[in-house]
Design goal:
heterodimer; A: mainly beta; 7-stranded mixed β-sheet; 4-stranded antiparallel β-sheet; globular; B: mainly beta; 5-stranded antiparallel β-sheet; 0% helix; 55% strand
């Protein structure tokens, strides 16, 4: 199984600022995704992080708000831009490991926006 | 829009009992089915996956899939207090993207 490191693990941010979350995997992966879990809710897919190209966003999510980079097979970043209290959530990096077909999650980044 | 529905819960069972968790999905083209467990304040962890109709057993856990009825379930035998958590049903298509249900909270009473 892969070790997925996310940072920061938690942060408190001011309205209007931006925060970048990093995800590092210790294995080569075929797919990387970013999910959001709002308080008391299930997981919602934000986007698929594509290596070397623009991410593929799900309905309701846009690049200007959630820019994503994936410069190589094992690293990705998600930026939450111009934050508002509604962005308070847990953001989870998840991967599918090469040769497997199951989704594994990082520990998540808990953001609180004041 | 793909939907995954789970019983609203919460579900409470006594220690040693069988806990039955149910899930239905809307997309007949779904190919993979997963159960994740999420403890409070933690990220989801995979318990079981199933791809074919029928039952799949792993220790105290059994996943059941009926594609004709678009139904997947998870049975937990000999429930333990440590099984108390939120259980998320997830359904996938051909591209590894998963759609999650809202989850059901299970409480196992000692």
């Amino acid at each position: 199984s892969a070790v997925i490191s996310q940072k920061p693990s938690r942060d408190i941010c001011q309205r209007g600022t931006s925060l970048t979350i990093q995800c590092q995997v210790d294995s080569q992966v075929t797919m990387m995704f970013w999910y959001r879990q709002q308080p008391g809710q299930s997981l919602t897919l934000i986007a698929t992080a594509n290596q070397g190209s623009e991410a593929t966003y799900e309905s309701g999510f846009v690049i200007d708000k959630f820019p994503i980079s994936r410069p190589n097979l094992t690293f990705s970043t998600l930026t939450v831009s111009n934050m508002s209290p509604e962005d308070s959530s847990i953001y989870l990096c998840s991967v599918v490991i090469s040769g497997a077909n199951v989704l594994t999650f990082g520990a998540g980044s808990r953001l609180t926006v004041l | 829009q793909k939907e995954v529905e789970q019983n609203s819960g919460p579900l409470s069972v006594p220690e040693g009992a069988i806990a039955s968790l149910n899930c239905t999905y809307s997309d007949r083209g779904s190919q993979s089915f997963f159960w994740y467990r999420q403890y409070s304040g933690k990220s989801p962890e995979l318990i079981m996956f199933i791809y074919s109709n029928g039952d799949k057993e792993d220790g105290r856990f059994t996943a059941q899939l009926n594609k004709a009825s678009q139904y997947v379930s998870l049975l937990i035998r000999d429930s333990q207090p440590s099984d108390s958590a939120t259980y998320l049903c997830a359904v996938g298509g051909a591209n590894s993207k998963l759609t999650f249900g809202k989850g059901i909270t299970l409480s196992v009473r000692p």
